[in-house]
Amino acid sequence: MQVPFLDLKAQYRSIKEEIDAAMQAVVDQTAFAGGPFVARFEEAFAKFCGCKYAVGAGSGTDALWMALIASGVGPGDEVITVPDTFIATAEAISFCGAKPVFVDVVESTCNMDPEKLESAITERTKAVIPVHLFGQPADMDPILEIARKHGLLVIEDACQAHGSQYKGRMAGSLGDAGCFSFYPGKNLGAYGEAGAVVTNSEALAEKMRMFRDHGQARKYEHEMIGWNARMDGLQGAVLSVKLNHLEDWNNARRQNAHLYNELLRGVPGIIVPTEADYARHIYHIYAIRTSKRDSLMAHLAEKGISCGIHYPVPVHLQKAYQDLGHAEGSFPVAERCAAEFVSLPMFPELTAEQISFVADGIKGFCG
Ligand SMILES: Cc1ncc(COP(=O)(O)O)c(C=O)c1O
């Protein structure tokens, strides 16, 4: 049996007619850059997140960058985030001219440790970016409390957390802005690159709309130096269709995760992911931990099972960020997580038979 890490073709087959019709409608109207299909998706996605505004963007990286720039983050500022994330979180900070400052994560969720936040704050700190890693929200109440006490913005990196909840509230709606990626493999994935920022601030939404469109208030009237960070029409149309299925797909992922947990809990040398009391985890990634990662992955690959690693090198140890002066041991929990994570196949269409096959493969390896 072959078990892919992700099967986007299976999902396309299940909604082919809807997707084909939506894409044809964009072509018929030649509404390719921004336009009504993007506007319709923005309205639906804002509602889904429980926010007043959603501003579509060209990618999740653009979304993070645009949220920071429009919030006034710039040269000389510091922005606190975590090292166990995709590098885009830190890049967005760097591309504002600001400095990424890392704090370590909590062992059980690999999300920002609120107890380590306050000591990282300086007079230069402008914002905090908690990352909702793998689809499980960071512990937002204490993070928000500390941020508010120090007058800091909170911008959520919800790029892996479409429909994830913190104490019943949607990820992305908890801080000043929430940034999403619709990279094809995400729980809500486009058919190309796309992203969005959600917020309840009209002023912030307005500024981001200008920024993504070369700082234009009206055609060829540029009030600020902006960028081309627009979402394209085909992505807006595809995402509108897929948003209607997102809850079913997230529930299917949750069921798959529960089955993995049932089959793998207690297997020697394997730690299954935990869902925090406060969380509704939507399992963008289902990552187990093991100290024998390489040999386990090789064993599974021989059986036709594809796995991934998210992410093998934490951002503070990347060459790109060597100027920050961190070394091994700077953030020990994040480093341990990065050394031990193995992401198992996870997508809504994964069958119970495939999950059992993966679990048997792991049990066979662990004895
Ligand atoms: C946590 C996180 N932040 C930011 C991004 C960047 O999103 P994009 O690839 O759409 O630019 C991603 C996407 O992989 C991500 O997982």
Fold topology:
Layout: H1 8-14, H2 16-29, H3 36-49, E1 53-57, H4 60-70, E2 78-81, H5 88-94, E3 99-102, H6 114-117, E4 125-128, H7 140-149, E5 153-157, E6 165-166, E7 169-170, E8 177-181, E9 195-199, H8 202-211, E10 216-218, E11 221-222, H9 233-243, H10 246-264, E12 279-280, E13 286-289, H11 293-302, H12 332-340, E14 341-344, H13 352-366
Parallel strand pairs: 2-3, 2-4, 4-5, 5-8
Antiparallel strand pairs: 1-9, 6-7, 6-12, 8-9, 10-11, 13-14
This protein binds pyridoxal-5'-phosphate.
The site of pyridoxal-5'-phosphate has 14 residues, from α4 and α5.
Walkthrough of the structure:
With 367 residues, the chain is of the alpha/beta class. 38% of the residues lie in helices and 14% in strands. It is built from 13 helices and 14 strands. It has a seven-stranded mixed β-sheet, sandwiched between helices. A three-stranded antiparallel β-sheet has the order 7-6-12, with no helix packed on it. The protein has a two-stranded antiparallel sheet with strand order 10-11. β2, α5 (88-94) and β3 form a beta-alpha-beta unit. α3 (36-49) packs parallel to α9. The chain is globular, with a radius of gyration of 20 Å. The protein binds pyridoxal-5'-phosphate.
Instruction: Report, as a whole number of angstroms, the end-to-end distance.
Output: 21 Å
Catalogue the unreliable spans: none
Rounded mean pLDDT score:
98
**Helix/strand-derived class?**
alpha/beta
Q: Ligands bound here?
A: pyridoxal-5'-phosphate
The main sheet comes to: 7 strands, mixed
Binned, the helix content reads 25-40%
Helical stretch count? Answer: 13
Main sheet: strand order = 1-9-8-5-4-2-3
Broad shape: globular
Task: Work out the radius of gyration.
Answer: 20 Å
Tell me how many strands there are.
Answer: 14
Strand content: 5-15%
Element-by-element helix/strand order = HHHEHEHEHEHEEEEEHEEHHEEHHEH
